[in-house]
């Protein structure tokens, strides 16, 4: 009987100690980063900027673009380390990678 009880404790012990783990790469709760769309209606969402030896690239809505290319009626006129500038009908819009400044 003691052997069965020991075996049962060994098999069920890990289940009793199991805990739910959170994804460390998930956005912080309450930050709204995952669900919030771009500030302006109809603007593409800037996801990444790639700077290097070649021409600068901006990833907007999952597609990569260079300066001079068109995105949903907008002309990409500038790419910097953390933002892009789009132009449509003579008006310029700046899209940034981060909604607010991050302090470390």
UniProtKB/TrEMBL annotation:
Question: Which source organism does the UniProt entry give?
Answer: Aeromonas media
Q: Provide the alphabetized UniProt keywords.
A: Signal
Q: Name one Pfam family in it.
A: Y4YQ_C
The chain positions of domain YscD/Y4YQ C-terminal read: 46-94
InterPro entries recorded: YscD/Y4YQ_C
Name of the protein described by the UniProt record: MSHA biogenesis protein MshK
Q: Which residues form the signal peptide?
A: 1-18
């Amino acid at each position: 009987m003691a052997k069965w009880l020991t075996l049962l404790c060994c098999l069920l012990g890990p289940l009793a100690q199991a805990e739910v783990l959170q994804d460390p790469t998930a956005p912080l709760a309450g930050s709204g980063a995952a669900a919030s769309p771009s500030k302006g209606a109809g603007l593409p969402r800037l996801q990444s900027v790639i700077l290097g030896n070649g021409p600068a690239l901006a990833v907007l809505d999952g597609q990569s673009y260079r300066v001079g290319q068109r995105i949903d009626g907008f002309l990409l006129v500038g790419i910097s380390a953390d933002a892009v500038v789009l132009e449509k009908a003579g008006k310029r819009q700046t899209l940034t990678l981060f909604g607010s400044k991050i302090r470390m």
